[in-house]
Amino acid sequence: MRTESRYSEVRKVLFRVLWLNLAVALAKIIFGQISGSISILSDGFHSLTDGASNVVALVGLRLADRPPDANHPYGHRKFETLAAGAIALFLLIVVVEVAQVAFVRFRSGGAPAVTGASFAIMLTTIVINVAVVRAERKAAKRLSSELLLADARHTQSDVLTSIAVVAALVGSAYGYPLLDPLAALVIVGFIGYAGFEIARDAARILSDEIVISEEDVSKVVQSVPRVLGCHQIRSRGSADHVFLDLHVWMDGATPLVDAHAVSHEVKDRLMQQYPQIADAIIHIEPPPLGARW
């Protein structure tokens, strides 16, 4: 899929999810204020950060879609990863806010007003969020976008927190009001774990962690005739946008023109085997003394 088409598809998905997240968040926040339920209100703010992260993601995509230039010869692809990292930051802010509200309720006491409408609001938003998670995961796989995958994980945490809220509402209805702030603390755990996963995946890309194993690359390279071996294999980038460089061994007596042709064949085979490779830099050299092939 062409880069322009891919970014356009990712943007369409994010815009659709943004409006759904805003609707879900407003419903929870308004009803949480009316009913006095800390867990519903906290879950509403969690949903609101889903929408905020969608906005951050859209801004990141706009920057990442820019073509390579003199100052960014590798392109702007990592802006998408930075946007995914910003989602993790939003989650951290929510963790702090929800924890503070929960501890205040533990100290001050009080009970929420639990009605049939409370359950209707929560169950409806759960159904919506489950549909959003499934759609985003499917789109993330089709478009190879870690940004959509990160956003799906964020929304999935919202599903889990909403289930915890429903459990708290049931407990409050049966005379256990402390379950309301307790559910808020459970929400903190879910949000924190989702943030950790997103930050970990973004860190792998930003720290240039290996993407394709040396062994897999070596197998492809050594399938090319006249190649004696390879070493110093390095890969970096995201799952769908990889940069690769390596040293390929050839007989030292090979004419330069022939060696150049072999290097192109190596590159073509690598990019055919791994379409996610954006570019591969190949250095031709004779085998080191004592090397086995």
Write a structural description.
It is a single chain. With 293 residues, this protein is mainly alpha-helical. The chain contains eight helices and three strands; from the N terminus they run H-H-H-H-H-H-H-E-E-H-E. A three-stranded mixed β-sheet has the order 1-2-3, covered by helices on one side. A hairpin with a 2-residue loop joins strand 1 (229-238) and strand 2. The chain is elongated and about 85 Å long. The mean pLDDT is 83.
Major beta-sheet overview: 3 strands, mixed
Provide the β-strand percentage band: 5-15%
The ordered H/E elements are HHHHHHHEEHE
Q: What is the helical fraction, as a range of percent?
A: 55-70%
What does the radius of gyration come to?
25 Å
Quick one: how many beta strands?
3
Distance between the termini: 37 Å
Overall pLDDT score: 83
Number of helices: 8
User: Spans of 5+ residues with little confidence (pLDDT < 50)?
Assistant: none
Strands of the widest sheet, in order across it, are 1-2-3
- Given the helix and strand composition, which structural class is it? mainly alpha
Global outline: elongated
Oligomer: single chain
How is the topology of this model organized?
Blueprint (H helix, E strand, L loop, with lengths): L2 H33 L2 H27 L13 H31 L7 H28 L2 H28 L5 H28 L7 H8 L7 E10 L2 E9 L6 H18 L3 E9 L8
Parallel strand pairs: 2-3
Antiparallel strand pairs: 1-2
In short:
The chain contains eight helices and three strands. It is mainly α.
